[in-house]
Give the backbone structure.
Amino acid sequence: MATAPTATESATIEPGTTRAPTPAGPPRIASGEAHVWCAGLDVPAETLARLHAILGVDERDRCARFRFQRDRRRFIVAHGVLRDLLGLHLHARPGRIRYEYRAFGRPELHPRFGGRLRFNLSHSGDLALVAIAAESDVGVDVEYCRSHSDYAEIARQHFSATEVDQLNALPEPLRAEAFLACWTKKEAYVKARGRGLAMPLNGFTVPLTTDPAQGPATVVAPNDTGRAVRWTIHTLRPAPGFIGALAVQGGGWRLSQWQWRMQAS
């Protein structure tokens, strides 16, 4: 049976973000808006097959290299969902969407689809997040919350001195979650910048906030031409047991979160 994506507004909407009646499809993304979509990666076989069929050749080659079937399935669903959502926003068939890749490997839409929408994808465990913004670079990251026996050492290697001090000042039971909150913010920001490993994570500082209600953070950093640019970083709680972050260039963003689901057509 054929399936089609639907938009369901998430119950975990941050204070201050926009809320609209649930439509049959996503609303048009206006300037100054960013949408974050949450998708579960454990799907029925028929949905998996449909999503695999819309992947590009390079994506199929990548998923074929995964050693474990679970990782291969989750890659297929995450990248298929991304194509589904881009297809909805662009009014295009998902399988015909084409990407171009920047110098550090970050994908962006082929010029034939216009330069208005920017996007980013992250997945951890059985959950994926897709961020789509209008006319501004965007990055997203998500992590499953679990204890890290080596988080302190990772923090010393990759966090700024301020972040390490703040982490160490927390009670022990709170450190693992604060570590992940900091890590996802850093990853989202680096992905939004499109610089990959060329940008050291300890070269900038973000708050260890774990509660979205505390509002977004701001990072001001020079761009490639040396001009100071403002970036807004939101803490996300997309599902129980997960923490994430969204980074988007500029300020005053209106953020809404949505749930990707499949239904019979």
